[in-house]
Amino acid sequence: HEMLLGAGFARDLAETPAVLGRTLDTNAEALGAARLLVAGAASVRLLGIGSSRHAAGIGAAALELAGMRADVPPAPGSAVPPPVLRSADVVVVVSQSGETPALVAAALRARDLGCRIISVTNSRGRLAALADVRLDSSAGPERVVAASKSVSSSVLLLRGLAGDVDALPLVTAVEQLLGADTSRLVAGAHPGHVVAGGLGAEWVAAEAALKLAETGGRLVTGEPLVEHLHGPVAVPVTTLALVEPDDPNAAGLAGDVARIGSDPSYELVLARLTDPACAAVLALVAGQVAALAWARRGGVDADAARGLSKVTRTA
Amino acid sequence: HEMLLGAGFARDLAETPAVLGRTLDTNAEALGAARLLVAGAASVRLLGIGSSRHAAGIGAAALELAGMRADVPPAPGSAVPPPVLRSADVVVVVSQSGETPALVAAALRARDLGCRIISVTNSRGRLAALADVRLDSSAGPERVVAASKSVSSSVLLLRGLAGDVDALPLVTAVEQLLGADTSRLVAGAHPGHVVAGGLGAEWVAAEAALKLAETGGRLVTGEPLVEHLHGPVAVPVTTLALVEPDDPNAAGLAGDVARIGSDPSYELVLARLTDPACAAVLALVAGQVAALAWARRGGVDADAARGLSKVTRTA
């Protein structure tokens, strides 16, 4: 019975390896055009809201790692001052639906200012229609509101903007992760806090915390390892750490458990991947796996939409 | 007796109007030099960790509002890829202590790459020593680990980088806020989530959530209004909204309470200020006031350091 809970989310997750395996190939031509645009740009500004903004943040980190100037302005909306854009900038707009009104408005403004637009969407919507280059996360429909496979493939596409990448080691690592036994992971108290290391750590942690909240209905915070060690949250709470085998900051985590008197934390040590952005995608999937496992452990249906909606209300 | 709890934090808060009233004057000469640097920069990248990074984020938004290209790279640390920097960029480093090793390392790297450095610190430390222009938040020592007055004055200084500003309306509004009755604010359940609107909303919300966590020992999340309305956290939790009188997104909040079945939320409507960055400082102080009020309401000492330390462990 327990395995019936969150069956839709589980199916979305199970499709992730296949999605990641095909995304770069099906976008090969568009990625070539998009790479030319970003290589010639003064800077790249990536726009998104929610999980798509988290994906954009990891993408910005991947572009910067490749030596290109990239960042993520504030989530757009009415009463939010729009970012400074110059005609030599490229704007990358990330949106699962491709229809979020605030993102459409931001993209139209960018086009009016002379910027070239790259869209990363999971459906042919208004954003794809107005973009100079359209990338398609090729993830198929998300069965539940809490997006998973489309977020992972969007990050892989954004990594592709920065240059050639081999997705095969990531696909293999994700397959292993999805097949792994999660019983040890859910043995104690529900995590209230997620920390992550590596490329785009703040966005990985934020996305994992959001997934735990969306699927399990509990309050969860997230931050990168370096922020956590700078001033660990002064709350005795169980922490889920998504860390890579060689992360030098991971060693400081065990001491925190004793120091802040929390329940034992969970350290999910991920497979070693050469490409830092692929490692970030693997960490994202690990957060999704943990979210499903914790929802089931608590008898909660990860598929339930609760207050969430795929239709955005922001303008 | 209740008023003795958090006496140190209360004294830091009480000094905020005086600090804000003098900061621009005592930094007048340095601000003039710093403005010349940022006006001539290709772009401005602001670095910080923790509350200082939140301040940097609001500062970046203020610079962008004034038409300058500005952003906040990931919190620096070992294993965090450093930002792309060109010699025409100006790097602004924000740190209360002025000593955080990861920030010193980042500033030294920026200097080696030919960038000019502006420091914003609350003490003459290593960051001030290596900067081309030193701004001093002039806040006096923070009595407790949870920084307050120095964060507010750092944001005002960063606003000063963007051009002339009159601090007087802000000082008056902060005085009124500190003198206001908070009994209605703490009448129900402790907020588990903070949303904020206006300039730098994501950083204001993150800082208010951090202050509530640091002083009250409870888990609190934070996000900007536009993110909240895009996909409100799927957790039935009491929300504290820090909103400005004219924020068009604030109208959507009341519906959320009914929709996600949470306890009634708190809306703290702030004084109307013409300058958006000054409004952000006022919202920061409102978050601090709420944090102290909630700690006292729960019989918790806001001054207790818990697991927190002023000495950073990140490198």
Structural classification of chain A: alpha/beta
What fold name goes in the CATH topology slot of the largest domain in chain A? Rossmann fold
Q: What profile does the largest beta sheet of chain A have?
A: 5 strands, parallel
Provide the number of structural domains of chain A: 2
Which features would summarize this protein structure in a list?
alpha/beta, 315 residues, Rossmann fold, homodimer, globular, 9 strands, four-stranded parallel β-sheet, five-stranded parallel β-sheet
What does this structure look like?
2 copies of one chain form a homodimer. Helices cover 44% and strands 12% of the residues of chain A. With 315 residues, chain A is α/β, with parallel strands linked by helices. In chain A, helix 11 links the parallel strand 8 (239-243) and strand 9 (266-269). Chain A has helices at 7-14, 16-26, 28-39, 51-65, 101-112, 126-130, 149-161, 168-179, 201-216, 225-230, 253-259, 276-297; strands at residues 44-47, 70-71, 90-95, 116-121, 133-136, 193-196, 221-224, 239-243, 266-269. The first copy, chain A, has a 5-stranded parallel beta sheet, sandwiched between helices. The first copy, chain A, has a 4-stranded parallel beta sheet with strand order 7-6-8-9. Chain A is globular and about 55 Å long. At the A-B interface, helix 4, strand 2, helix 9 and helix 10 of A face helix 4, strand 2, helix 9, helix 10 and helix 11 of B.
